[in-house]
Specification:
231 residues; Four Helix Bundle (Hemerythrin (Met), subunit A); 2 domains; globular
């Protein structure tokens, strides 16, 4: 629900710009299917439901969540004044790992720090690829993005951040003493992923390269589930 809140407030903030971009012109607020008032009502309902769930969590979780909730509102606006809005996005939505961890422990753990930083870099990486679909439109309407800031180096930086994310996951698996076969399987998955992404990027098929990250995240989740099942 919180993720949906972020999507709704983003569409509310950008609906006038979305009308000018081919990829986003058919979004409900941009094409007039929904009114701005209906968008705000939906946002308030989702926000209220999210807060009701938050009240059932420990105080630490509530504090962390509310701090990052502010950034959910800031991110859509950051595209107008900040050169790398993807950084704000990474800081904000990468916090899901910290919030989930705070439900189980109030002690700072090196693994969760590495995981959070890794996820942050991963989000910047795949959202940079996603934003490359709209570079020409963003230049015309004056919205900032990492591809506009990095120019011809965008793919290089995206792949570098992706690699650092993969390394961070492997480090967490090693620190937490995951079974060797799980670590090896995850590394092989990373290699296959990188090969497939490279092919898509060479063909400038940015949207497919972006969507491939779903399977990367799924593979990591499976690794964690297998380890938990064994233990």
């Amino acid at each position: 629900m919180v993720r949906s809140c972020g999507c709704v407030i983003n569409d509310i903030s950008d609906y006038q710009f979305d009308r000018l971009v081919d990829r986003t012109k058919d979004r409900p607020l941009a094409n007039g299917e929904l009114s701005l008032l209906e968008g705000w009502v939906f946002f308030i309902i989702l926000g209220g439901l999210s807060l009701s769930l938050l009240l059932l969590t420990p105080v630490l979780t509530q504090i962390i969540s509310l701090c990052f909730a502010i950034l959910i509102l800031v991110y859509p606006l950051s595209k107008r004044f900040f050169k790398l809005p993807q950084l704000i996005l990474g800081i904000t939505f990468g916090a899901g790992s910290l919030i989930a961890y705070s439900l189980q422990s109030s002690e700072i753990n090196i693994s969760i720090i590495i995981l959070y930083l890794g996820v942050l870099l991963w989000i910047i990486s795949f959202d940079t690829i996603y934003a490359m679909e709209d570079v020409s439109d963003d230049m015309i309407i004056g919205i900032n993005s990492s591809p506009l800031a990095w120019g011809e180096n965008s793919i290089y930086y995206s792949k570098l951040l992706q690699l650092l994310f993969c390394i961070s996951i492997v480090l967490v698996l090693i620190i937490e003493e995951f079974r060797l076969f799980i670590i090896i399987a995850q590394v092989i998955t990373f290699v296959i992923f990188e090969i497939k992404v490279n092919v898509l990027l060479k063909n400038k098929d940015y949207l497919k390269a972006f969507k491939l990250n779903h399977w990367l995240g799924f593979s990591i989740m499976i690794s964690f589930f297998i380890q938990l099942a064994i233990n």
